[in-house]
What we know:
Distance between the termini: 60 Å
Oligomer: single chain
Structural class: mainly alpha
CATH superfamily: Cytochrome C3
Amino acid sequence: MNKIFAGLVAAIVFSAGVAAAAESPATITFDTKNGKVTFPHKAHQDRFKGDCTKCHADKTGGKIAGWSKDKAHGLCRKCHQTEKKGPTKCVDCHKK
């Protein structure tokens, strides 16, 4: 009986995680002093096949801990340079 209950709880938690990922915004816009940055969240989810840990601390996603200018530049720009895909110059992301 306990194994059945544990299995049901695991299925519910897994389903909630999948539903949360499916309901995340298609784009996220950050207002910065150098202009708005529009982040194509869905495109990144698709590119990394739903592996949220490329950016987030764990597979559940959510806000990125310690999000700041330095964190964004370190995480996003570095990934773009490594993957040789995506913008790396200021004006490519920051639109006034």
